[in-house]
Specification:
heterodimer, A: alpha/beta, Rossmann fold, five-stranded parallel β-sheet, 43% helix, B: alpha+beta, Beta-Lactamase, 5 domains, five-stranded antiparallel β-sheet, 22 helices, 66% helix
Chain lengths: 132, 690
């Protein structure tokens, strides 16, 4: 039986922001959003995917500033493994500037979104568009 | 007949004394000598007559004894007393008048004369029937012994060498003869004669044996002679060859000087020996002790400081013997020279040197060999001096060569030093460059650190300012979108106001972040997008149209077709153009706003002209620059928000390599803003393809 809702991993350590986007994406976009609040948690998920214990998500929304590591490191880890390298990924951050965006583009990101410029409604639209 | 010999004795003796004393050239003495010979010739002529010797009769226990004739008395008075007394007077005068070796020689001659002639005189008593026996004749033998000693010890008549050779060759001949007779005797006794087969055969064994014995005896005789007979019989060839070989083998000055000093000292058995060298430095002549053995160095220096010595050696180029100095002093014509020679003698006395050998190279005095006395107490013979003079020539050459070599080496060292000095400068420069490079590297590292710090600061401000706004904005969006259920109209209005405020806040934060980025030198504008400037204008006009219409301000657009696409930072350029258009609407209460575009080959111009508040002349010049330096005016600008907008706009336009300026007739007379942007060739091509 095909999966009803697309699964999105939201890697975000700020609880309020995570709540806003999770709520928006689930309510507006009908996505199944799983919030990962740390690098540790994210790595555990990656390990499980690699081990074949769980299925990979349809999309990852990745914050760059995280407690123990930065999002770029996680992105590299994802891209370095056969099982996770094709997962679509959008960087969702509050850092402007071109450097980080370029860095991300080299690691094959789908988009680079500034959070203050992006309401949950707008994000749902972008994601919907991406996972069409 | 017997008298002939004795008759000649006094005159011969007189001539010999003149020779020894070097008075032969003196005319007065020569005349006296000739007179002496004439008188003696007369005596000789009459010596066979009875005028001289009357008779020969037995006297006491002698079988024959002569009796004097009348002339014999004259002979006794003139020759035996006169000539000999005169010779003695000359001797004694010279003994006190002279110094050096000759004084010793004279001393012994006087002694010998006294003893022998007084002894000899005892003969005459019997002649005149005085009964005193001629016992003094025994003393005559002493004459020979004393003179023999003087010959050996004081080089009298330079007969010593002859004696040395005589003793040596006699010894060798004695051995040869002895051997011959021994062999001959042995042959006769054991082999039955020298001329048979057995004897010839024996000869084969005896011959090499004899050579061996001869060789050893040669050596033994020399040792014996040296040790017991005061005869230092050195082999000249051997000494010179040995030293010459050493000198040839060496260009080391120290080694040369060492072998000279050691060889001479050992070969001649001297108590002291030394080599002093003269070196010229910057025109100043220096005397240096190269090596001395047995000498007191301080005294040695006092000697060589005596410039008279060096001048003297330079002039004569011959060995200087201390014993001869007083004689030389006496012969010196100048008083100064005399005094100097005497001073020199005192000096040599003081340091106990008895010989100075000049070392001459070319015509120049380059040093000297200074020697002490022979340990045996022996004097230097003429042969010694010849040897030393020969050696000194070899030594001079060797020393000169060594000095040249040393000079070459020193020159080479100087050269090396010079090269070192030169390269030192280069090395220094290199070091400075290296230092400068390191300073720059450090500076770069510092800058990098600073840049990292700026990046950290930038990231931190973005994070802290934007995070709360993100959730506020997000929740408001969700609330208004009905995610949390239906809301009343009243609450929806409030939420909309909140959302508006949040949006404004986000905008302000963005501007502040941009300002801070511009301020800390971080890049803000990224030219990456294909941008349609007329599109941005249309969009902006669309956004402000409602507000303008509310005020009754007319918005005119005069944009030509086919505006080229340019490379730009879309977001930032949009912000810049929005700012200017937004300001125009804000500050224009009536009239119109006209937005025009002009395009030429390489640039495009956007003109935003209004009939609004205008800009006072004094602000126009630095309208875009003086964000934080305006004082009171800045407050007004900040209050309206216009200042920040214009400042950011100008930075963005500059980031696009464009230009922005404003024109205004003055306050209340409206204003015109001009934005000029470059069109790249690529962007022109892009425009055509569209």
């Amino acid at each position: 039986m095909p999966k009803l809702n697309k699964v999105i991993y939201l890697v975000e350590d700020d609880a309020a922001i995570a709540d806003v986007y999770k709520t928006g994406l689930e309510a507006i976009g009908k996505f199944n959003v799983e919030v990962l609040v740390s690098c540790f948690e994210t790595r555990k998920r990656i390990e499980k995917i690699v081990a074949g214990e769980i299925e990979k998500p349809d999309l990852v929304l990745l914050d760059l500033l995280l407690p123990e590591c930065n999002g770029m490191q996680l992105l590299r880890e994802l891209r370095s493994k056969e099982e996770t390298k094709d997962i679509p990924l959008i960087i969702l951050t509050n850092y402007g500037g071109d450097e980080l965006k370029k860095m991300g583009e080299k690691l094959d990101i789908a988009d680079y979104i500034i959070k203050t410029e992006t309401t949950p409604t707008k994000l749902a639209g972008i994601v919907k568009n991406r996972l069409k | 007949m017997l008298s002939v010999g004795s008759t000649l004795i006094p005159v011969f003796y007189f001539q010999w004394i003149l020779l020894i004393l070097g008075l032969f050239k003196n005319k007065k003495r020569l005349a006296l000598l000739i007179f002496g010979y004439l008188v003696t010739a007369v005596f000789l002529y009459f010596s066979f007559s009875n005028l001289f010797v009357k008779d020969v009769i037995p006297e006491l226990n002698f079988r024959f004894w002569p009796k004097p004739g009348p002339l014999y008395g004259a002979y006794l008075i003139f020759s035996y007393v006169g000539l000999i007394t005169y010779a003695l007077i000359e001797l004694i005068r010279n003994y006190f008048g002279r110094k050096g070796i000759i004084r010793y020689q004279i001393k012994y001659i006087i002694l010998a004369t006294f003893i022998s002639f007084i002894g000899g005189a005892t003969n005459f008593f019997l002649w005149y029937d005085i009964p005193i026996l001629p016992v003094g004749n025994v003393l005559v033998a002493l004459y020979t012994i004393i003179l023999f000693y003087a010959m050996i010890r004081y080089r009298l008549m330079d007969i010593r060498v002859v004696i040395q050779k005589f003793v040596y060759f006699s010894g060798m001949a004695g051995i040869a003869y002895g051997a011959y007779y021994l062999i001959n005797w042995s042959y006769s006794k054991f082999l039955g004669g020298s001329y048979n087969a057995k004897a010839y055969f024996a000869g084969l064994i005896v011959a090499p044996l004899f050579v061996g014995i001869f060789f050893f005896s040669n050596k033994w005789i020399k040792i014996f002679a040296n040790k017991y007979l005061f005869l230092s019989l050195y082999n000249y060839q051997e000494t010179i060859t040995k030293l010459a070989e050493e000198l040839n083998d060496s260009i080391d000055l120290d080694k040369i000087v060492n072998s000279i000093v050691n060889t001479i000292k050992e070969t001649m058995r001297l108590n002291r020996a030394g080599v002093l060298l003269i070196s010229e430095e910057k025109g100043k002549v220096n005397y240096k002790i190269a090596k001395v053995v047995g000498f007191d160095e301080a005294n040695g220096i006092s000697l060589i400081k005596d410039s008279f010595l060096t001048r003297y050696l330079q002039k004569t180029k011959k060995a200087l013997i201390k014993e001869e100095l007083s004689f030389l002093a006496k012969e010196a014509n100048k008083t100064a020279d005399k005094q100097s020679l005497e001073a020199l003698e005192r000096n040599m006395d003081k340091i106990e040197a008895s010989l100075c050998l000049p070392l001459i190279s070319g015509a120049k005095l380059i040093g000297m060999i200074v020697l002490g006395f022979k340990i045996s107490g022996d004097a230097y013979s003429k042969e010694d001096l010849q040897l030393l003079e020969m050696l000194s020539k070899q030594v001079s050459t060797a020393i000169e060569n060594a000095k040249l070599y040393k000079e070459v080496q020193e020159f080479s060292n100087t050269l090396k030093q010079k090269v070192d000095e030169q390269t030192k400068e280069l090395r220094k420069q290199k070091e400075e460059i290296q230092k400068a490079y390191e300073v720059e590297k450090k500076a770069n590292e510092e800058l990098k650190k600073l840049n990292n710090a700026k990046t950290q600061f930038s990231l931190a401000t973005q994070h802290h300012l934007r995070t709360p706004l993100t959730s506020m904005h997000g929740y408001l969006d969700l609330l208004l979108g009905g995610t949390y259920g239906k809301i009343s109209k009243k609450i929806a209005e409030i939420l909309k106001k909140l959302e508006q405020s949040t949006t404004n806040e986000i905008k302000i934060v963005n501007e502040l972040l941009d300002i801070s980025h511009f301020q800390i030198g971080k890049e803000v504008v990224f030219i990456k997008d294909d941008v349609s400037v007329d599109g941005i204008i249309q969009e902006a006009v669309g956004d402000v149209r409602l507000e303008a219409e509310k005020k009754g301000v007319v918005l005119n657009l005069e944009i030509p077709e086919n505006i080229p696409i340019i490379k730009a930072d879309l977001q930032k350029l949009k912000m810049a153009i929005y700012n200017i258009i937004d300001n125009a609407v804000k500050y224009t209460q009536k009239g119109s706003i006209t937005i025009k575009m002009e395009v030429n080959s390489d640039k495009m111009l956007v003109i935003i002209k209004d009939t609004g508040a205008g800009i006072p002349k004094e602000y126009q010049k630095d309208l875009f620059d003086k964000l934080f330096e305006r004082g009171e005016d800045a407050e007004r600008m900040f209050a309206t928000g216009r200042g920040i907008g214009l400042w950011i706009t100008s930075r963005i336009i500059n980031g696009h390599k464009g230009r922005i300026w404003a024109e205004s007739e003055g306050e209340g007379k409206g204003s015109a803003f001009f934005i000029e942007l470059p069109i790249t060739i690529k962007s022109l091509e892009t425009a055509k393809s569209i």
